[in-house]
Amino acid sequence: MLDAADRKGTRAGAGAATIDITNRTSIDSPEFLGDHSAVTGWRQTVADYVALTKPKIISLLLVTTLGAMMIAGEGFPSVWIVLWTLIGGALASGGAGAVNHFIDRDIDTKMGRTKGRPVVTGRIAPWQALAFGIALEVASFALLAIGVNLLSAFLALAGYLFYVVIYTLWLKRVTPQNIVIGGAAGAFPPLVGWAAATGDLSAGAWVLFAIVFFWTPPHFWALALLIRGDYERANVPMLPVVRGVAETRKQIMIYTVIMIATTLLPLATGTSGPLYLVLALGLGGWFLYDAILLLREQTQRAARRLYLYSLLYLALLFLAMVIDHAFVV
């Protein structure tokens, strides 16, 4: 048996042990999570700034830039010219996207597709998005002017200004033809690529511009059909909101036919040959089938099908030009 002193010492030791255990840092405590939270916050900030650039749009624009570079001359341009052009193009496109986040922050709060954007949620301040967008374009111009040529730098700047000023600031909120005219901004990358590879702009470059220009309305209006409610809530006069769903489907069909006809012009300029013709007709036929399906079914499923295929279509069309060019050369 323990005497009184031993029992007292034992209780004191147990108390000390208890105090030691309760004073240990919990895995849920701020002290433990401090570094982890800092890392998580840093990653979120980087992700937000990347989101400002609209990377999905950049990837498709760079496909048309690279495709134009590959077919502009008799041979392929140097690896360094390709690298600087793609980086410069990505910076210009990303800068335009960031400025768009700044300008559209009021209507983005009303649209389900955009209400989680960094500026809308407050994760990035509006002035930071604007400064970031301008800085990216400055970097783009400097890189293209020094590493490639002045013509490509000015063309990238023109595309940037067309998207920010003509489309976002002016046309987007005032006319249902916003995407028809403003969509020209997305047609500048082939010009940038062509100019980077050759130092000039021949008829072939402008044909590529026209292809992307006429591709834009059916592509974007298919998306507008899917998110028509968003545009209504934001009071943005997209075609389905102003002219109705039925009229939008008709316009998609009309522009699809014009686009397919335009894709045959590279043969007239000597940019592409018979192999491209076969591939272009096949790709265009599929696009036309989806447009007819949308006109007949009048369903969201048909609109989604056309929208998704339109993304693949543009990339495959430019790939067809490159394959044809490589085969001929």
From TrEMBL:
Which keywords annotate this record? Cell membrane, Heme biosynthesis, Membrane, Transferase, Transmembrane, Transmembrane helix
Enzyme Commission number(s) from the entry? 2.5.1.141
Locations listed in the record: Cell membrane
Give GO MF terms, alphabetically.
Answer: protoheme IX farnesyltransferase activity
The record, for NCBIfam families, names:
cyoE_ctaB, PRK04375.1-2
Q: Which HAMAP family match?
A: CyoE_CtaB
Can you say what this protein is called?
Protoheme IX farnesyltransferase
What is the originating organism of this protein? uncultured Thermomicrobiales bacterium
Taxonomic classification: Bacteria, Pseudomonadati, Thermomicrobiota, Thermomicrobia, Thermomicrobiales
